[in-house]
Structures are given as structure tokens and as C-alpha cells.
Amino acid sequence: MTNILQTSIFPEETLHQSYNISSYNRLLSVVKDLASVRTIEEIIEIVRLAARDLTNADGVTFVLRDGECCHYVDENAIGPLWKGMRFPLRSCISGWAMLNKQAAVIEDIYQDTRIPLEAYKVTFVKSLVMVPIRIADPLGAIGAYWSTLHQATPEEIGLLEILTDTTAVAIANVQLFQKLTNQNALKDKFIAMLAHELRNPVAPISNGVQLLKLKVGETGAVGQTVLMMQHQIKHLSKLIDELLDVSSITYGKISLNVEKVNLVELVRQSLNDHAQAIKRSNLNVVQNLPNTPLWAYVDPTRFFQIFGNLLDNALKFSKPDGTIWVDLSFIPGENGSGSVAVLSVRDSGIGIEPTILPELFEPFTQADRSLDRSRGGLGLGLSVVKSLVELHGGNVEASSRGINLGAEFKVTLPVCEEITAWDNDPEIMEAAKKSLKILVIEDNDDSAITLQAVLEHFGHEVSIANNGILGVELARKLEPHVIICDIGLPEMDGFAVAQELSKDSKFNRSILIALTGYGSQEDRQLALQAGFKCHLTKPVDFEILTAEIDRYFDGVLSS
Q1: Which residues pair with 104 in a beta bridge?
Q2: How far is CA 221 from CA 173, 188, 209, 211, 243, in A?
Q3: What phi, psi does 294 have (nearest 5°)?
Q4: Is the confidence at residue 426, as pLDDT, over 60?
Q5: What are the distances in angstroms from CA 310 to CA 61, 241, 317, 324, 383?
Q6: Which residue ranges make up each domain of the chain?
Q7: C-alpha distance from residue 340 to each of 257, 306, 336, 415 (Å)
């Protein structure tokens, strides 16, 4: 940007003109301001003020070409000119400057046949200079006006020409920025819709696989095949989530639900969640965790995502019989403040090429650049990790001694200053397995039927409604303990269903769960605002679904 502006406003021939120091400094200020603008309105505001300062004129106008008309967009003058008005190109001096691709310098408007006198008689203007914006293909003009007869000096004309050149570059940059912004908005909309459309067919497949697992177990050829299918479905779901997360993080659409938590327990829980993947990869995990709690203010869900991505990365790039080292340590700050927790995930895997390290956390960057793409992935996991860590006020770094010498990722997070001894854990009582009345509101028959089958396997009584209106009617008739509702429903969407049911006091102790293909942070917030207790994305992991049900279990059954 800087080089473009400098080349544009300070061409070689103008460097030899003698401008006074104040004009030169004012120009530099305008260049600096225009380099960072993002809207045409900002450009107009800067230029209309600067043009008058640089020329000592009694008024200036900022004109944009609008088809075959000149639009006098804004002005800065001692009296009214033509702000907001449009004139045919061939009937005004700004149009003449644009059509002829040159400046119009007029000492006496009443002696120049190009001037439409009727339009000028009601103004203070006696003399003017009109300079087109972008000579090659004019898109507007800047006019300077004087209330007394005035012969514009070469310096005044030169300053206006430099200002119009600068303005042309700024407008081009704004147009490019707006084009990219629009394209990114369309891309985000496409990604969100793609994720939704992918989740819909994946959901019934996932439900069916989980039902098969419950029926046939995990042993034998069929059992092992079911486990493989379940693993691949989880991998596909993770890819969909990463696509949405990268898009949401880029545009600031992710917010954290921060709470005070023990990082030691979160790391242990995450390692337990990955136990099957670790066993399947035939890897050895060495843990080095503190014996006392390490408290920090983090979003637990996002922390699991951070550590999970790093652990998945280590699993992906490690060879069988390799080792992964997981270390969590506390580093005290100076004078009792600035203490941090350092989480390290190190592996004995294929390592990272030095040339890749600087760009490793950029979206779509992958350490595996082989033709066979045997390790898969979109190259988004580490980008998500970096963004989420930074949202928590921390940082992440990667290192490797070279190819086949492993890699290490270190996450540093601020921790609570008070590091207290770990009290005895409160006893956690598992809710008794009781049959619940559950209503599934889902227009995708495959998803609804397979979800019903799995829930009935656990002993629940399940009913189905295939649209929102029928769902509300059945809910009022059955008064279910749990209502699992899709968002994209025909006739009455899931948000409207939640809002309608939330008005009825009989559902105050019901669990209203959104189960949908729409999975952005904004979608989650809209679901909670509509009255859902929680928001889950398809395909749902039944351990997560049952955990959400258990979370509200006591409130549902007590009366």
C-alpha cells in the first residue's frame, strides 16, 4: 500500500516542484490517513477537508461519476454549492474534466462558455479549478472554488492533482477491500451451508453405526468394522467443525464461556477421551502432570479442542510403537503476578521441516506434503489452536529438531494467582437409569428413526414429529421430559418451536435440546436465546447427548 501511494502521489516530475513545508506535511498526513480507510465515505471526509486546506480555496466539492451524470457527493465551503445534486456529464464543468481527462482552470466563470451560469449565479463562485480523479479512466473529480477572481497557481493545481491521484488509489483499494469482503461473506455463507448439508446425511449414518455398536459389540469382524466406521465418521465431523471454526474465528464470531477450572483435570479427562485412539495407534503416552490443581480461567470446551487438536496431531504424525509426552507445569511470575501454565505435547514422530515451521499455524498449511496424503486433514487444526489460545490470552509455539526427530508444541496460558491445595473432590453420583419420555422433532426421516432406535435401546419412550407445528402439538399432548429438536424444519423452524414452548410453564422443567446441522457460534447463541438448554451438532455423539440429558436429570424428574 505504501509503495503504491508514494509512486502515485509523488511522481518524479512533481518532486522538483517547490511546495511549502506545511503543504508537504499536509499531503503526507492525507496519504497516511487514506492508506487505512475502508469506505468511500471515509475517503470523501478526508479529501474534502484536505483539498480546501491545500488550496486555501473558499470551497471544494467531491464529485463521483454516476453513469452519464456527475454526482456532487459532498462539499466544504463558505456557502452552499450543489451537495447531493446530479447533473448530466456534458452540462457541468466536472463532467467536462472527466470527459476530456484533464484539469479545467477557470479564472472568471462568466467568461468561460463551459460554465452553466444559471447553476452558478446562486453561489459565491467566481473562479475555480476542477481536476479529474484518475486521468486514464476518470471516476470523479475534485473542484476548488474562490469567491473572488483568482488565477490558480501552479502549486495549487499541482497539489490538487496529487490529491486526486492519491484519492484514485484509495478508492481502488476500498473497492478491492469491499470486493474481498463480499467474497469472504459469500464464502462463509457457503461453508456454513456446506457444513449443514454434510451433517444431515452424516447424522443418520452415525446414529445407525452407534446402534450397530450397541447391538453387536466391539469384537469380531463386524464389531471391528463398526468401530472403524465410527472412527471415520468422527473424523469427518471434526473436519466439518474445523471448517466452521476457522471461518468464525477469522471474523470474530467466536466468544468464550470462561470459568475457573483445574487444568490438571481437563488434561486427564481429555487423555481419557483419546484412550481408544491412542490404543489403536499403538503408542505410549507418558504423562507428567502436577499433583496439585492448576487453576485458570478458560472455556473448558475450547480447552478440550486445543489439547485435543495437539494430541490428534501427535497421533497422526507418530509411528507405531512411538511415544508421546504430555507435560503440564506451573511457572510463577515475578512479584506474585504473571504466572502461567505451560502445556507441552511432544512426540517421537516424523518431525517438521524447518522451512514449514514459520507458516505452520497458517490455515491450510500441512506438514504432510507427500503425494499420497496418507495422514489426511485440511491443515486447519493448528490454525484453530493458535486462534483459540490467543483468545485466552496465551500463545503457542512449535519446534522440531528435524525430519524423523519428532516435534513439540507448547501452549502457554495465564493462570489464577492463588494456587491452593487440592481439596477432596466432591463425590459424583451417577444418575439412576430411568425411562424418560423423549420427543424428537426432525424432518429427516432417516435421522429421526435411527435416533429413536438408539434412544429406545437405552429404555426411553420416544415419539417423533416431522415438522415444527406437529412438534408443538405433540409436546403439549405428551409433556415429554426431553425435546430434541432440529432447527431447519418446514412450516415452523426450531427457533420458533423453542420460543413457543418456552411460553408454556408446563415445559419449565423439560430439557429442550437443539440438534442441528447449523453449528456456528452464532447459531449456538441464537439457539440459547430462543430457549434451548443446549445446542448440539449432527452427527451427535450419544455419550455427549446422554451427558446433556443427565446434566438436567434431577430437575426434570423432580416436581
Answers
A1: 130
A2: 61, 42, 14, 16, 33
A3: -130, 100
A4: no
A5: 58, 16, 11, 11, 11
A6: 2-178, 259-414, 437-557
A7: 20, 16, 11, 5
CB-side neighbour CA atoms (13 Å) of 37: 25
For 189, the 3-state DSSP assignment is helix
Query: Exposure of 313 by Cβ count < 10 A (0-12 exposed, 13-18 middle, 19+ buried)?
Result: buried
Instruction: Give 507-526 pLDDT, tens digit per residue.
Output: 888 889 998 887 777 788 88
Give me the half-sphere count of Cα atoms (radius 13 Å) on the Cβ side of residue 313.
34
Task: Identify the pLDDT of residue 19.
Answer: 56
Residue 267: closest CA among 329, 320, 314, 313:
329
- What's the Cα-to-Cα distance from 443 to each of 175, 202, 370, 477, 533, rounded to whole Å? 43, 15, 43, 19, 21
Smallest CA-to-CA distance from 233 within 537, 547, 548, 444 is with 537
Strand partners of residue 129: 105, 144
64-74: b (≥16 Cβ within 10 Å) or e: bbeeebbbbbb
With b meaning 16 or more CB within 10 Å and e meaning fewer, what string describes 160-183? bbbbbbbbbbbbebbeeeeeeeee
CA distances for 551 relative to 58, 85, 544, angstroms: 72, 64, 10
Q: Are 196 and 436 in contact (CB under 8 A)?
A: no
Would you identify the CATH topology of the domain 259-414? Heat Shock Protein 90 (3.30.565)
This prediction has a pTM of 0.46
Q: Which of 44-58, 109-123, 184-198 has the lowest mean pLDDT?
A: 184-198
User: Between β-strands 127-133 and 259-262, what pairing exists: parallel, antiparallel or unpaired?
Assistant: unpaired
Looking at CATH, the fold of the domain delimited by 437-557 is given as: Rossmann fold (3.40.50)
DSSP label of 124: -
Q: Domain 2-178 belongs to what topology?
A: Beta-Lactamase (3.30.450)
Give strand pairing partners of 325.
Answer: 286, 346
Q: C-alpha angle 273/274/277, rounded to 5°?
A: 140
Whether the upstream peptide bond of residue 539 has omega within 30° of 0, thus cis, is yes
Question: What's the CA gap between 511 and 9, in Å, rounded?
Answer: 65
Distance separating alpha carbons of residues 122 and 327, to the nearest angstrom: 80
